[in-house]
Amino acid sequence: MENELINLKNNALSLILEAEDEKELEEIKLKFLGRSGKLTQAIRKLPKIDIEKRKELGVLANEVKETIEASVDEKKKQLKKGILMSKIRKIDVTNPGIKPQIGHLHLVTQAISEITSIFEKIGFVRVRYPEVEWDWYAFEALNFPKDHPARDDWETFFIDGASHKKYGPMLLTPHTSSGQIREMSNAVKSSVSGEISPIKMLNIAKCYRRQSDVSHTPMFHQFEGLAIDKNLSIVNLKGVLDYFVKSYFGEKRVSRIRPYHFEFTEPSFEVDVSCGVCNGQGCSLCKDGWLELGGAGMVHPNVLKNTGIDPDKFNGFAFGWGVERALMMKDGLEIDDLRLIYSNKLEFLEQF
Amino acid sequence: MNIKILDSWLREFLETNASVKDIARELSLRAVSVDKVEKTANDYVYHVEVTTNRVDLMSHIGIAKEAAAALSEQGISTKFIPPKYNDVKNIGVSFPIEIINDPKLVNRIMAQVLEVKIGYSPEKIRRRLEESGIRSLNSVVDVTNYVMREVGHPSHVFDFDLLSTRKMDIRQSRPGETLTTLDGKKYRLTGGDIVAVDDNGEIIDLLGVMGTANSVVQENTKRIIFFLDNNNPKFIRRSSMSLGIRTEAAIINEKGIDPELMKDAFKRGIKLFEEIAEGKVISDSIDIYPNKSKKGHVTVSEDKISSVIGIDINSEKSADILRKLGFEVKIKNGKLDTKVPTLRPDVTTEEDIIEEVARIFGYHKLPSIIPSFLTNKTGTFADRFYFEKKSKNFFKYLGFTEIYNYSLVSEDLFDGPVDRAIKLKNPLSEDMMYLRNSLVPSLLTSVDENKGHDEIKIFEMSGVYEKRQGDLPKEILMLAGVVKRHDVSFFEVKGIIEALTLDLGIKKINFNKRSKSPGSDIYIDGKFLGYIEVLDGETINFELNFEEILNYANNKKTYKKLAKYPPIFEDITFVLDTSVLTEDVINEILNKSFLIKNVTLKDRFSNSRTFHITYQAEDRSLSSKDVFEIHKKIVDSIGEKFAAKVK
């Protein structure tokens, strides 16, 4: 009896091993485990066996049954896998994949993200200051003369309402430079016996100017750098500009600074970046091989004084550039109308 | 300010071997930006952008001085040739007009009467004017423009015979006064313009901005007054902008030009009238000069110059550069004592002098060194910007496209009555009149603008503005979004917000039915966080106060020991009234035993809800008896509390 059971098992297993499809496996299962199957018949003989041996054989018979069932199942899985794999071998891998739907971050967000990472690596710390500001922060403390054109109704948006006794009219800040005053005033507030902590600020914010055409939108973004310490120089400002230009626009692009004029810096510069389209050779998109990025300069001593910093002890440099402008100076992003950036056409936004 | 400079004209004041390219490059790098160089039939035209502080460069002579300094510093032998203009002769006939000046308005006036014959200017003059962007009209008007382009001071001519009185009162205009400018346009003044008024009270000139029709030179003009006025720039700016008259003269005058320049302009003008308009002086000249320009005085040390520029530049070098720019310099004990030319009122401080030295020396010759110091600011890693970026990325990877709308909106896009709004005093248009207090209305507009898309998922993170009495508005960062799809569900949007807050380390937020509109109000720690609003069957929007989120967002991670013993799962289905809140049922179940590790809603049909319950102990495997006892408690308690039956 014991041998019979073992033979049955071996016999079944070898048949299962050779089976070629699911139908054959079902037949094998029936042949051994079915109502008149070989194992079923063998088990029927069990009651006639000696009681002492019966229990032992019962366990064995059950084991054989389970082994056959498991082997059949295992073989079925193998066969299925084989069919699947042979199907897979035949697929056209050039058919499209099933992509999860991914959205798009706005170009301005992407630019801000890159700009932030670049400056953080050289120790600049990002901040955010009010968009709705007092005249003091946007103009007066930045050394703008009272009758400067930027302070009149034609260039800057003013808020309808009463002026502050000390800080003047309320307005929409036309530049991130107002953040310079906020940052320096904060540094002075937390200074210890006249010693302020050195500043490396990166202020990125929405700005507003009263203009709208192909190269201007009434709202736009600027990023402003401010460094204040002892003995900073034009050489240091150039170091930061060159580093940014190479990092953001690519190693091939070069920068230069030219004389310019701003009320809140002295000396003041205009920063140019070599044109990415013609590689500085001169083309219809650039000015003789150069594109203007924006302004920069050494912080004017009056500005330091206005925030309470002693210009004989500390000095520094600052720069403020348009995020949209920097974006459009990148290779491949020569967008012909700035207003498109704020049009919110999905066809446009989904390109990026 | 932009000015077109002709190469041939420039070289009348410049002795140099420099090529056109050299001149353009060195001007750009060391003085003033040359945007482009245009080749014309016989000449080259430099398109120069002059900064507002350098109105002295709005002329060929001004540019020539700078070019000489810049080119010679570059090693290209160059010399500035000062203009040689003859003095004006007086003939013993006194100037026939009585001029009453107000020194608060006008710094200097020079004038003389001439006989002229009006015709066309010679070819050379016409070409030069046209190529430098000024229309050639007739020989007399051309003289004034030619002088302005060459010397840099604007001037004016009256038809002497059109003046009906012999008096010219210069004063501020009064509200309601009217005038007709020489181009035939009528203006009603609001007061505060600088005008010349005759004895009849009639305005005969809008000084510094534009002449008037009643005294304009015409084809048959025989006698003129050549008239130069140097005005208070504040008045000019105001008049020019408010009346919308942006003549070149106004653009120059509003920047404040050195009255010392007037003498050269005057001499040059008289000479030109003689040359091209058969001009003959028939009166003495007058020169009313109440506000003389003064030379500034600035002292700066050699050390300071070197320290700001960042390399060593000795006093001799600095002095050499400054002298080329017309400064008088004395070197004493390592200090430069400088006298500033009257043309340069923009130079008043040490830094101004340093700029002059540095730019002519050449910024491009300086090295680049990143300052290595660091700030003492701490805690800047997981700051607000970190969580903002994380949240934006979260939405991107869920298929949302980010929108940037303008913060300025129309009345329609303001949420609620506009008397609560922050309003612009000088908006560009009605569409951009108020600062928005919600991102949702603009986002819904963006949805409308993208018709033709079956599915729209957009979001925006931006500030809104809340009016405060006597203070700047509160700027609150908001996060809002819209999902539009034919089968969008409330729970889809709710799930997104739950997943977002979890990802930001926020364990719990609460949803309450919204009374204002279909949807849900959202709370965090009992504080209002935002809402989900179901607009219609296919559009759902939400808006969250991100400042509130930032108060709770964190990167804290907590480790819990992995369970040693297996959990037991059970599903219980209750028949519940629709008014019973799922959250209340879950909380009630959780309360029944500390062995209940988790309860979720697995399924729901019209009147039944299936809860999936996880039982687990930390110290042993639970037996079915343990579970059965808790199960019984649950069924009893839910049955009693919510009148529910087990299905």
TrEMBL record, chain A:
One of its GO terms (biological process) is phenylalanyl-tRNA aminoacylation. Gene3D superfamilies: Bira Bifunctional Protein, Domain 2. GO terms for cellular component: cytoplasm. It catalyses: tRNA(Phe) + L-phenylalanine + ATP = L-phenylalanyl-tRNA(Phe) + AMP + diphosphate + H(+). Binds 2 magnesium ions per tetramer. It is found in: Cytoplasm. Residues 115-329 form the Aminoacyl-transfer RNA synthetases class-II family profile domain. Its main location: cytoplasm. Mg(2+) binds at residue 266. The keyword Nucleotide-binding applies. Pfam families: Phe_tRNA-synt_N, tRNA-synt_2d. Keywords: Aminoacyl-tRNA synthetase, ATP-binding, Cytoplasm, Ligase, Magnesium, Metal-binding, Nucleotide-binding, Protein biosynthesis. It is an enzyme of class 6 (ligase). GO terms for molecular function: ATP binding; magnesium ion binding; phenylalanine-tRNA ligase activity; tRNA binding. Signal peptide: none annotated. InterPro entries: aa-tRNA-synth_II, aa-tRNA-synth_II/BPL/LPL, Phe-tRNA-synth_IIc_asu, Phe-tRNA_ligase_II_N, Phe_tRNA_ligase_alpha1_bac, Phenylalanyl-tRNA_Synthase, tRNA-bd_arm. Coiled coil: none annotated. Its cofactor is Mg(2+). Its EC number is 6.1.1.20. Belongs to the class-II aminoacyl-tRNA synthetase family. Phe-tRNA synthetase alpha subunit type 1 subfamily. Tetramer of two alpha and two beta subunits. PANTHER family: PHENYLALANINE--TRNA LIGASE, MITOCHONDRIAL, PHENYLALANYL-TRNA SYNTHETASE. This is Phenylalanine--tRNA ligase alpha subunit. The gene is pheS.
UniProtKB/TrEMBL annotation, chain B:
One of its GO terms (cellular component) is phenylalanine-tRNA ligase complex. Binds 2 magnesium ions per tetramer. It comes from the Bacteria. Residues 563-647 form the FDX-ACB domain. Transmembrane segments: none annotated. Residues 293-368 form the B5 domain. Its main location: cytoplasm. Keywords: Aminoacyl-tRNA synthetase, ATP-binding, Cytoplasm, Ligase, Magnesium, Metal-binding, Nucleotide-binding, Protein biosynthesis. It is found in: Cytoplasm. Its cofactor is Mg(2+). It is an enzyme of class 6 (ligase). NCBIfam families: pheT_bact. Belongs to the phenylalanyl-tRNA synthetase beta subunit family. Type 1 subfamily. Tetramer of two alpha and two beta subunits. This is Phenylalanine--tRNA ligase beta subunit. It comes from Candidatus Woesebacteria bacterium GW2011_GWB1_38_5b. The lineage of its organism: Bacteria, Candidatus Woeseibacteriota.
